[in-house]
Amino acid sequence: MLWAWRASGGENSVRLLRALVPLPILDPRILPEPGLTALIDWSSPILHADLDAFYASVEVLNNPALQGRPVIVGGTSGRGVVTSASYEARRYGVHSAMPTARARRLCPNGIFVAPSFPAYIAKSREVEALFDSFSVAVEPLALDEAFLDLRRARRLWRDPATAAEALKDRVLRSTGLVLSVGVAPNKFLAKVASRLAKPDGVLVVRAGAVEDFLHPLPIGHLWGVGKQTAVVLQRLGLRTIGDVACCPALLLERALGSHGAALARLASGHDDRDVVPDQAAKSVGAEETFEEDLAEDTQMLGALLRLSDRVASRLRAQGISGHTITVKVRLSSFDTFSRSRTLKSEVDGATGIYGVARELLVKFLEDKPPSRRRIRLLGVSVSNLSQWPASDQMVFDQQPEWGAAELALDRIRRRFGEDALGFGALLDDG
Ligand SMILES: [Mg+2]
Q1: pLDDT > 90: percent of the chain
Q2: What pTM was computed for the model?
Q3: What CATH number did the domain enclosing 240 receive?
Q4: FRET label pair with 33: which of 243, 313, 369, 376, CA 20 to 30 Å apart?
């Protein structure tokens, strides 16, 4: 039985990947037929996304002369350790945490560079913003890795594997960095899968195939198994995760205490920890600075509608809605104002956001003399955010026709870019 598939990047492997997936393959440009949604597998909604050789890759991006060379980032003094090595350097056996002196012996022609953390942090923020645009539940683990829970975004993607491919693609195109992704029913399995997917791959573990995936792996893949624990397990004759799963829990507990019980749970693929977002987004917004200041009402309202639509699309992409709508206005004098209104019911649709934003802007402008009615920048944001209810039906049922139409727009935008489609017809609406 096919338990997982792997893409190792490049067009050929994507073709291979498509040949292996045991589900009907839809062109991602075509929305699934209602009858097909039952075949689409959402049993593995947790992603572990991990950038490949992150520090070394940022060094290569910042100095293209390093492309294809064995780059080793680490303490350049005699006593330092390697913090990151490009895949070219790994071929010589160099890896993170290795003393630099040893790395020099293994790879005498390696290019050793001192770490430049401000550059890594800046790049990490760019990547994190992309993660945030895929899910409201993102738990960063380090500068180069995070868990994403896609359960709130399931109306937007055919399945989690498609979302993982899209995330990889988006990260590469926006930042030049290569991402590997593990897709699994829980955090532990997703993390194991991303490690095996490297470099430049996606590995999916389906819920019905967890043991086939996990049990042949060596015990080193279990979380919390360091050198000491490995020695204890080996003394018990346990070599693979499957061995640990079959070992009586009592024996493990006797050898390792409560740690043993935790290992037994992981070895059978169980991990019920939630993806815990680092910090919930406080607002979702969009703004635009105009090449020429806007003076006509129709221009201003047109811009406001575009911005409302963009914000609505971002809210839906994260499975959230909000109660407070804020309009930001910068006049040609550079004076900047903001006006907000909080609604009793939450809103996530372009029409709802636009309706309130328009009232706020009209009221703001009504007592301004014509000389003060020239707008340099407009912004719309929604705050006071909450997640959709688990069924996520409620939000759509309020305005069912807009829900469906806007979701279709989201899918098309994801494929062809944010400005591919807009609400042009709405401009005459009021
Ligand atoms: Mg990494």
Answers
A1: 50
A2: 0.60
A3: 1.10.150.20
A4: 313
